[in-house]
Write a structure and sequence with these properties.
This protein is mostly helical. It has 20 helices and 13 strands. The strands form 6 sheets. It has a 3-stranded antiparallel sheet with strand order 5-6-9. A hairpin with a 6-residue loop joins strand 3 and strand 4. The longest helix has 18 residues.
């Protein structure tokens, strides 16, 4: 094979998760860097758990990330694109049946009639002997007459592949030379269930061979499966592709990232306001290095630079803080119209949840970008950052209104004199940050107050929060009338507070 052909083969039994997305990205980048073909194939043989909804989540998530494939289904339940279709395993059963008959005819596989009880007894016996479980070969050498008799009695055997003795060796493009003794594979393994359903180890090899896959790039957790796959490639008479096993994605405590312990679904990150550019950038750096100090790279830049030589062997720790930092960097790079469009769904969510009373129009949002864009770690933080601007009846918590060094009486006095200062010295037309700050600083100095205490009281009075964008930019965004009205309301709320 001279053409690079790689694939991602997710199972639609759950939503698109971080691990699958990272594997898809590395395959995509490798194909683009080498001028090859990237294929998406759905491993849907687990009929009980596979759903169209999960298929849609996977395909939509990959499209959202900007990972486009050259062959495969474009949409859930949609038509296939490419010369090697169909690209759903349940539509390829004839190929698996043919390959199974071939192995059976050449005695490279055989029917196994062992009952679940017999297999469980074998497992317990190995466990008692402190040995790893393995198939004992009970059905490996049944005569044709015995098999015929079992079939005649209504038994249908599972199909087991005969594991030949010896060492299986291969050169992994990430991990280097790997050797595994076939004895450690657990004996002859099932490739087709007794009901005729083919298993993963079998179908993945049949499909990779049929689709001329040149490189299998997948997670390290598949490393132990690779000897089985190599033996099946050889038994079926196919060339063995090159293998590259990517490092596991780990939690900060270096345990394996999993949906039971971690947030893994890509849709969750989308809902939290991570943007595709940042997530792709971060996923690319989960186990791969640019070889330079550069960290902020677009999908096109990654495609031009990706290689397997810089994929690390050790586990890649998922650092959410680093992801948020990177997300913030990419938000800063967005054009105003693009950012406004991306913020709108999150503002609609704030409205639907009753946290704001109206939606700002695009021009109002545009005016806020100078104080918002530099401070957003995620798009969903827009409500926490400036949602107070679109609340009609703001009622700050009186406990928050009083700074630590002040009492309620001092706070009432501070807010009242601040209101008088703003009303007297700053007009509606010239209500700008540089007009507001000097007289309020002068007020604090004249009264012997710490500036921070006065400013904090004003901040909470007009926003209901202790952390906001710069105070005077916030007042300007509110406007003179709303600023004065909110100060009046805060003073009123403090009227009945003792002290």
């Amino acid at each position: 094979m001279t053409e690079t052909r790689v694939r991602i083969a997710p199972s639609p039994t759950g939503p698109l998760h971080i691990g699958t997305a990272r594997t898809a990205l590395f395959n995509y980048l490798f194909a683009r860097r080498t001028g090859g073909t990237f294929i998406l194939r759905l491993e849907d043989t687990d009929v009980a758990r596979s759903t169209v909804a999960f298929e849609e989540d996977i395909l939509t998530g990959l499209h959202w990330l900007g990972i486009q494939w050259d062959e495969g289904p474009d949409s859930a339940g949609g038509e296939d694109r490419g010369p090697y279709g169909p690209y759903r395993q349940m539509q390829r059963r004839e190929r698996y049946d043919e390959a199974a008959r071939d192995l059976l005819a050449r005695d490279l596989a055989y029917p196994c009639y062992c009952t679940a009880e017999e297999l469980e007894a074998d497992r317990k016996a190995h466990e008692a002997a402190h040995e790893p479980p393995r198939y004992v070969g009970r059905c490996a050498n049944l005569t044709a007459e015995t098999r015929a008799a079992k079939e005649a009695s209504g038994l249908r055997g599972a199909l087991r592949f005969r594991v030949p003795p010896g060492v299986v060796a291969f050169d992994d493009l990430v991990r280097g030379h790997v050797e595994i003794d076939a004895f450690n594979l657990g004996g002859d393994f099932v490739i087709v269930r007794s009901d005729g359903t083919p298993l993963y180890h079998f179908v993945v090899v049949v499909d990779d061979a049929a689709m001329d896959i040149s490189h299998v790039i997948r997670g390290e957790d598949h490393l132990s499966n690779t000897p089985k796959h190599i033996l099946l490639f050889r038994a079926l008479g196919h060339d063995v592709p090159a293998f590259a096993h990517l490092p596991l994605i780990l939690n900060p405590d270096r345990t394996k990232m999993s949906k039971r312990k971690s947030q893994t679904a890509i849709s969750d990150y989308l809902a939290q306001g991570f943007i595709r550019e940042a997530l792709v950038n971060y996923l690319a750096l989960l186990g791969w290095s640019t070889g330079t100090e550069e960290e902020i790279l677009s999908l096109d830049e990654l495609s031009a630079r990706f290689d397997l030589e810089h994929v690390q062997k050790g586990g890649a720790v998922f650092d959410r803080e680093r992801l948020e930092w990177l997300n913030g960097q990419w938000i800063r790079k967005l054009e105003p119209d693009d950012l406004i469009e991306r913020l709108e769904p999150f503002l609609q969510r704030e409205l639907d949840a009753g946290r704001i009373d109206r939606l700002p129009d695009p021009e109002e949002l545009r005016g806020l970008l100078p104080i918002v864009q530099e401070r957003l770690p995620r798009l969903d933080a827009v409500g926490d950052l400036v949602g107070f601007l679109w609340v009609d009846d703001l009622r700050p918590d009186p406990a928050l209104l009083v700074p630590k060094r002040w009492d309620a009486a001092t706070t009432r006095d501070g807010l009242a004199t601040a209101r008088e200062t703003i009303a007297a010295t700053v007009g509606a037309v010239t209500f700008e940050a540089d007009e507001l700050e000097p007289p309020l600083r002068a007020l604090a100095e004249a009264r012997g107050w710490k500036v921070g205490d006065l400013f904090m009281a004003i901040r909470v009075a007009v926003t209901g929060r202790t952390a906001t964008p710069p105070l005077f930019d916030t007042l300007v965004a509110l406007g003179r009338d709303r600023t004065l009205a909110r100060l009046d309301r805060a003073i009123e709320l403090l009227t009945d507070v003792p002290g």
